[in-house]
Write a structure and sequence with these properties.
The protein has 410 residues and is of the alpha/beta class. It is 35% helix and 21% strand. It has helices at 13-18, 21-25, 56-69, 87-98, 146-154, 163-166, 170-179, 192-204, 215-218, 253-266, 282-298, 319-333, 344-353, 396-406, and strands spanning 6-10, 30-33, 44-48, 74-78, 102-106, 114-117, 120-123, 126-127, 158-161, 184-187, 209-213, 244-248, 270-272, 302-305, 338-342, 358-366, 369-375, 383-387. It has a 15-stranded mixed beta sheet with strand order 9-10-5-11-4-1-3-2-16-17-18-15-12-14-13, with helices on both faces. The protein has a 3-stranded antiparallel beta sheet with strand order 6-7-8, with no helix packed on it. Helix 11 crosses helix 12. The radius of gyration is 20 Å and the shape is globular.
């Protein structure tokens, strides 16, 4: 089956972005929609439901509406590559709304260390429930076995396809999955080629399967879109060269290392917020903005972060709001050519402050780290890079700053 258009439903903004960047790099028109009323005829339309930390019933309703809004497209259910969020609830409603025979699930993303073995999700070889994601302040991960998780959350039977069956090729894999009695099939994945085989098998199903996974499987959905278009060195011309602002609200050690590397290589000043002191008081915000201004004058850009601050459990829901408010105040008094947003809640809150309707995606600075420009609001045309906390190499922020300053993707 070949379709002209693809629709992706993601549960947070950085997830929506990291599942879309590769399509843009192949030349397909790609837009991530924040405002449900924003009209898009792009070849790839990505909708964020912002439901990862919501009550399951709220998540279900948002996914149901998102699927309806993508009528006429091949739909992909994007989930977190570390199993955070309302995975089962959202998959269940997507299956029901689309009326698909089977859901084929593979949240692996080998390029960023996520693989699946025996149905267990591994992060750099370690079961995800034994990694730092088990201590996520918003959506802690307690289960590494994907079939067990999905059976518990959906009430449906879930089966598992092993690596040897995936490597038998798309036709054989199509037959294997078709003959399995379960409604939900989890596929083992060790490398990107395995995800390609899964997507190719789904094409043979001609719309009877719902694919569900992370940005890794999303990269193979071009098989539904037809021939890729040549595209190199995409440049965002809407903004002139200038400084970059980084806003980082995740406590993930990967993000911390990226900040420190950018400080080392680019001389990027880091303003680390002591968030517990910013709970109230306009004067405290004013002091932070003044400090940011001094740091900005010393360097070419600025990073505002809560990554190195003391963790305050009572503030886990409000940190993203505080960071977004600080960022908005800094942007109101200083000029930036681009903005880097890390952490899905932070990315969403900043975009809300800026009244962003959508993001036009141009490509990736590296796998899973997409780049584009803002649409709508007071910063329309501004370059943007988003990144999930645990994604990217140590150089991810350094590479992102280069794009944000000059608007060039290699």
């Amino acid at each position: 089956m070949t379709a002209k258009k693809l629709g992706i439903v993601a549960d947070d903004l950085t997830g929506a972005m990291d599942s879309s960047g590769y399509f843009a790099s192949l030349g397909f028109g790609t837009v991530v929609i924040l405002d449900p009323g924003y009209p898009s005829e792009a070849e790839v339309a990505v909708v964020t439901t912002n439901s990862r930390a919501e009550d399951p019933e709220i998540a279900r309703e948002r996914v149901r509406q998102a699927v309806k809004n993508l009528a006429g497209r091949v739909v992909y259910k994007k989930i977190d590559s570390t199993l955070r969020g309302n995975i089962g609830a959202e998959l269940e409603v997507a299956i029901a709304e689309l009326g698909t025979e089977k859901a084929v699930v593979a949240p692996a993303f080998p390029a960023v260390g996520r693989t699946i073995s025996g149905g267990n999700l591994l992060v750099n070889g370690v079961p995800v429930a034994e990694t730092q994601f088990a201590n996520d302040p918003i959506s802690p991960v307690r289960e590494s076995n994907i079939p067990a998780l999905l059976e518990k959350e959906t009430g449906r039977k879930a089966g598992c396809v092993l690596i040897a069956q995936v490597e038998a090729g798309p036709e054989a894999l199509y037959r294997t999955i078709s003959e399995m009695p379960q409604d939900i099939i989890v596929c083992d994945v060790a490398e990107q080629a395995h995800l390609n085989a899964i997507a190719a098998a789904a094409v043979l199903a001609e719309g009877r399967w719902l694919l569900c996974g992370s940005g890794g499987l999303a990269r193979e959905l071009y098989l539904f879109l037809g021939e890729a278009k040549a595209k190199k060195g995409k440049k965002s011309a809407s903004q002139k060269p200038g400084a970059a602002l980084a806003v980082v609200g995740t406590r993930n050690q990967v993000a911390a290392n990226q900040l420190l590397q950018a400080e080392k290589e680019k001389g990027l000043p880091i303003l680390n917020l002591e968030v517990e002191k910013l709970k109230s008081g306009e004067e405290l915000f004013d002091d932070v903005v003044q400090t940011a201004g001094r740091l900005f004058e010393e360097g070419k850009g600025l990073a505002v972060s809560s990554t190195f601050s003391q963790y305050v459990p009572a503030m886990k829901q409000s940190i993203s709001v505080i960071l977004a408010e600080v960022a908005a105040k800094i942007m109101a008094s200083h000029s930036f050519a681009g903005i880097f947003l890390s952490g899905g809640d932070v990315a969403l809150e900043v975009c809300r402050r800026l009244n962003v309707s959508a993001i036009r995606v141009h490509g990736e600075v590296e796998p899973g780290v997409p780049a584009g420009e803002l649409i709508g609001g007071q910063c329309g045309g501004m370059r943007v890079v988003t990144k999930a906390g645990g994604f990217g190499t140590e150089e991810a922020l350094v590479k992102s700053i280069s794009y944000l300053e000059r608007g060039e993707l290699l």
